[in-house]
Amino acid sequence: MTKTLYFQIATPERVVFTAEVAEAITLPTELGEVTILPDHLPLVASLRPGEVRVRVGGQEVTMAVSGGFIEVRPGKVTVLADTAEHAEELDERRAEEARQRAHELMSKERAAEGTDYAALAAKLEKELARLRVVRKHRERKGFGTQNVG
Fold first, then answer.
1. Residues 117/103, Cβ–Cβ less than 8 Å
2. Among positive and negative, which fits the CA dihedral 58, 32, 93, 85?
3. Considering the domain boundaries, does residue 148 fall inside one?
4. Chain segment 43-52, per-residue pLDDT in tens
5. Are 119 and 102 in contact, with CB atoms under 8 Å apart?
6. What's the CA gap between 47 and 36, in Å, rounded?
7. Residue 1 banded pLDDT, cuts 50, 70, 90
8. How many domains does the chain have?
9. Would you say 52 and 67 are in contact if contact means Cβ atoms under 8 Å apart?
10. Are residues 30 and 81 located together in one domain of the fold?
11. Strand 59-65 to strand 84-86: parallel, antiparallel, or no bridges (unpaired)?
12. What pLDDT score was predicted for residue 114?
């Protein structure tokens, strides 16, 4: 008997991806990267910015997320993400520009009072995650190589 694992990832704007039969789901959590397989124990965890990988039918689907929560129940994994994008949706140039803007804001705002450093750090972490995913996806597809900075 084949064990099944239903998977859904959603943001406040849309359902990003659904798989009726996922073989494995790898997620970035606050406690580190976790891979969920059928018969995984129930779990609720915070999602960190990073890469989500879902293996379906021998193929891997890759997405970038910026945070949120995961819930694992028998036969079902639900991700409620702040943002989630398929690797194919990511524009490396735009992600790099956004990362640079966030980095510059953090540098400039260090001297200013009342700066929300946590929000700036979260923005920077989100953009770094997007860059890692898009560059890794590009390398897998054979579009060249480049290290993530």
1. no
2. positive
3. no
4. 999 999 999 9
5. no
6. 14
7. very low
8. 2
9. no
10. yes
11. antiparallel
12. 55
Q: In whole angstroms, how large is the CA radius of gyration of the chain?
A: 17
- Residue 117's SS3 state is helix
Q: What is the model's pTM? A: 0.71
Give the domain extent around 112: 91-140
Domain assignment present for 1: no
Q: Is residue 115 domain-shared with residue 135, that is, in the same domain?
A: yes
- For residues 87 and 69, give the distance between their C-alpha atoms in angstroms, rounded to a whole number: 20
Under DSSP, is residue 143 helix (H, G, I), strand (E, B) or coil? coil
Verify that 34 and 104 share a domain, yes or no.
no
**Separation of alpha carbons 113 and 39, rounded Å:** 50
Q: Are residues 68 and 133 in the same domain?
A: no
Three-state DSSP at 81 gives: strand
Distance CA 22, CA 6 (A): 6
79 in the same domain as 12: yes
Written as one string, the DSSP assignment of 18-62 is EESS-SEEEEEETTEEEEE-TTPPPEEEEEPSEEEEEEETTEEEE
